[in-house]
Structures are given as structure tokens and as C-alpha cells.
Write a structure and sequence with these properties.
Blueprint (H helix, E strand, L loop, with lengths): L7 H8 L9 H22 L8 E5 L5 E3 H16 L5 E4 L6 E2 L11 E9 L10 E9 L10 H4 L8 E7 L3 E6 L4 E7 L4 E6 L10 E3 L10 H11 L8 E2 L5 H11 L1 E5 L12 H14 L3 E3 L19 E4 L1 H19 L2
Parallel strand pairs: 3-5, 11-12, 11-13
Antiparallel strand pairs: 1-2, 3-4, 5-6, 6-7, 7-8, 8-9, 9-10, 13-15, 14-15
Helix pairs in contact: 1-2, 2-3, 5-8
The structure holds 2,5-anhydro-1,6-di-O-phosphono-D-glucitol (AHG) and manganese (II) ion (MN) (2 copies).
Amino acid sequence: MSQKNQTLGEFIIENQSSFKYTSGELSRLINSIRLAAKVVNHEVNKAGLVDIIGTVGDTNIQGEDQQKLDVFANETFIKTMTKRNIVCGIASEEEDDFISINSQDENHQNKYVVLIDPLDGSSNIDVNVSVGTIFSIYRRVTPIGTPVTLEDFLQKGSQQVAAGYIIYGTSTMLVYTTGHGVNGFTLNPAIGTFYLSHPDMIFPESGKIYSVNEGNYIHFPQGIKDYIKYCQMEEGDRPYTSRYIGSLVSDFHRNMIKGGIYMYPKSSQNSNGKLRLLYECNPMAFLAEQAKGKASDGFKRIMDIEPTELHQRVPFICGSKNMVETAEEFMELAQKKATSF
Ligand code: AHG
Ligand code: MN
Ligand code: MN
């Protein structure tokens, strides 16, 4: 069969044997994410038509207002995985604590935990701009058959078994990795099937796009300020183009296809930046590395960071390898200058 006509369902079955552990559980898990993605996609597409836009009134643990679609996406992904008895634990950006599944049933054999940002870029919902879902999958580290503990979720990104995102954009795509490269599938909404449209996605080594919320420039560390000036300088293939959607998923997706760098640095207001290590940075870092890109906190590899709490934030620089390395050089140089005084 031509690779291009392959559906996500066929792809999952065909590649099941390449997983390290071939119990079929991971395949069932990705299948359940595929199903939830279609349900959320349907709702996202209706957002302009029905009175679903707006703030529920709740405030999530980060102190942000929850949009109705955040709640819907959160419930849909959690329900889909819980009801089908597929994972042993879920942690969500929208939940204060992790959820233990089947904790009363000593016979349950589920091995995987999922961490999820159910709706990324939620401030874009009411202006009809692309949003996404990000997921990250690990094998539990505590014994099978016992209730999950925090330890199962606080694993380094390098321990991820799979990660991916769904982008609800001009078309809806599911992009994921199980550690064997990155593949992208586009939803045909007429028949509700995802098709392999972007096999073996690769970040160009260098690019011409930089994505950062420059409104925060004044608060950025000196190294980031210097790198932004470097991007704007007229020299060689520069100046680069600035593109910032405000949905990590969408900015990442564009940069992976065209070549570019995404930055959410720390600032004088947020000492660890804004993005969450477990729900956003680690899964995107896994995808970036699998697509031959890079992800760093400015000094070290994102996936080497030892997590200490569920909702931990971290500075994030991610994208084309050469661009991330140059940004890191600017960070290091600025740090050296600051400490030499
Ligand atoms: P979320 O909607 O899940 O809270 O994530 C939004 C994140 C990320 O997707 C985006 O790139 C960034 O926040 C935008 O933040 P600023 O508005 O501060 O630039
Ligand atoms: Mn997010
Ligand atoms: Mn979110």
C-alpha cells in the first residue's frame, strides 16, 4: 500500500512491533487519543457557531481563567482514557493533582501514565486561531497493580515512550513519535479518518523564523535580548522573519516544517518562564529531537531536567538545531560577561 494512503489505524498496527514492549497497550492508548482528538476537533470547529466560547468562571492552578473548550477537551481526553481502562494514571495541566485509575483493582495490568495539555493556546479560541492538544506518555515506575504515585509522573523527559500533539488548524493533524521519528496524520473530516500525510518529519537544520513574545523583551535575560538582535541584524541570511501565533503547538508545527526557533524564556516577572515542563516542554522536546531539532532551557537539554513538581515551569528554546545552538551560545556569553564583573 502506498504510504500516503495509509490511515493512522493501519500505521499503528503496522508499527506495533517496533515498540520496545509489544503488549498492544500503547497502540490502544494512541487509538484512544485519536478518538478523543476527533471529538475535540468537532467541538473546536463548532466554537464559532454555538455559545461555547467564554470563561467558565473557574481558575486553574496557574491562576488562569478556564475557557469552556479547555474544560471540554480536558474531560474528553480523561474520560476516553479512563472509561476504556487504558492507562493507570493521568496528569493534566487543567487538574490540580494527578488522577489514579483503577487504584482499587489489584488485578489491573495497565503500565502507562499520560500527561496532557488538553487545550494549548486557549486564548486563541475566541478569535478563530489554531489551538492544539499536547500529550506525553511514560511507563510507570512503581509496581503494576498498585495505585500510581507522584513518582510515576515526575520522570525525566528522556524516559518518554511516546509524545505528540493534535493541531486544530486549517486542517486537523495528529503528529506523534514513539522514538522512531515523527509522523504526521491529517484528518479527512468528511469520513473522520486520519491519513499519513507527513511521513518522517524533520526540522531543517537552520531556518529563518524566530517565534517569541517580543512584548516581553524588556524583561528577558541579556542572552535572549542579544540573540533577538542577532536575528534582526542584516548579515548573511538575516534578518530573520518574526512569527508568533501564541499557541506553542502551532508555532512549533510551522517551525518544524519551515525551519525556525521558538522561545519562551524566563523574564524578570516569571523566573522560570511560563511553559510547563511536563505537559508542554518535554513532549515538544521529544518530538523536536526525533525530528533532528533541539530543545533547551538556554543552557541544558530539556529532557535531562529532573522534575520536582507536576506543574513546574521552565524556560524553553526549541527548534532547528543550528538556531537553538546559536541561542545557547548567546546565553552562555551573556552569563560569562555578567559573572566577570
Ligand atoms: P495554554 O493555552 O495551554 O495555557 O498555553 C499557552 C502557552 C503556549 O501555547 C503559548 O505559546 C504561550 O502560552 C503564549 O504565552 P504568551 O501569551 O505569554 O506569549
Ligand atoms: Mn499550553
Ligand atoms: Mn492548556
